[in-house]
Amino acid sequence: MQNAYHNLNDFSGRPIRTFNINAHFIASNPPTSFNPRSIYPRIHKTAYVGPFSSIIGDVSIGENVFIAPNVSIRADEGTPFHIGSNTNIQDGVILHGLEHGRVLHDGKEYSIYIANEVSCTHGCIIHGPCKLENRVFVGFHAIVLNAIVGEGSYISINALVTGGIRIAPNRFVPPGAIIETQEQADALGPVPADQEEFAEEVQHINQQFPPAYSLHFGSTRCSCGLACDCHSVKAILD
Fold it and tell me: 39: which residues sit within 8 A by CB, 6+ positions away?
C-alpha cells in the first residue's frame, strides 16, 4: 500500500496542512486564602506556547520564549513567576512554587525567576522558591527546588539541587548528583567544554522554534489558542 499515510486531502482534493486543534490553557489563578489576587499571565507576542501546555496565574513570559507541548506553569500557590527572553521550557517541564519562600531580583520578590537564554530540558522540575540566572542549563528530569543557580551553570540529567543553596556561576552538577548543602555547592567544578558546547547548541536550536512554529501553524489564531490554516478548519468543520 504505497503512501497509505501520505498526502491526506480535504474534500476538495487539496492537501490538509498542519492543524493544531489541541489548544493550550492560559488562565488567571483562582483566588484562595493564601493567594487572594487573581492575575492573568502576560505573554510576549513573539513567544510560542505549544499544545496541551498550561500557564496559570501571575506569570511573565518574555520575547522569543519557546514553551513546548505538555508543559505546566502554575503560579497558583507561590507567585509570581518570570521567564526571560530566548528561554526554552521543553516537553513535560513543571514549574510550581511553594506558598512561602521567595528569591530576589532587582529588589522584587519572585517565587520562580528564570533569566534569559535558560534551557529547562525534557521532564525537569523547577520548583520555587528558586532562581536560574542567564544561560543556566537544566538537564532531563533534574529537579531544582529552593536554590539559586548562577549564570552559565549546568545541571545534569537526574540531578537534585535543593536546600537553600547558591551555586556559583559556570559550575557543573554531575549526572544524578544530590547537591543539598552549601559545602557541596562550593565544591563543584567548572562546566566541561563539551557540556558547554552542548548547552550552546540547545540554545541555538530552541531559539529558532518560536518563529518557526508560528509560521508552521499559520496566521489564524483565536482567543482559545488555536493556530491553524483556514482551509484545514473548513475541511474539518464541513
Answer: 28, 29, 57, 58, 75, 79, 80
Instruction: Residue 131: name the closest of 83, 67, 181, 66 by CA.
Output: 83
Whole-model pTM: value is 0.86
Instruction: Say how far apart CA 50 and CA 205 lie, in whole Å.
Output: 16
Instruction: Give bridge partners of residue 127 from the DSSP assignment.
Output: 96, 145
pLDDT digits (tens, 9 = 90+) for 37-84: 999 999 999 999 998 999 999 999 999 999 999 999 999 999 999 999
pLDDT digits (tens, 9 = 90+) for 106-116: 999 999 999 99
> Cell numbers of 155, please?
545541571
Poorest-confidence range of 23-37, 99-113, 114-128, 143-157? 23-37
Burial (CB count <10 Å: 0-12, 13-18, 19+), residue 215: exposed
Catalytic residue list: 77
233 three-state secondary structure:
helix
pLDDT: which is higher, 185 or 215 = 185
**10 Å Cβ neighbour count for 1?**
4
The pLDDT value recorded for residue 186 is 98
Distance from C-alpha of 96 to C-alpha of 138, rounded to nearest angstrom:
16
Q: Would you state the cell numbers that stand for residue 131, as one nine-digit string? A: 532562581
Looking at the DSSP bridge assignments, the partners of residue 126 are 95, 144
Give the Cα separation of 27 and 42 in Å (integer): 10
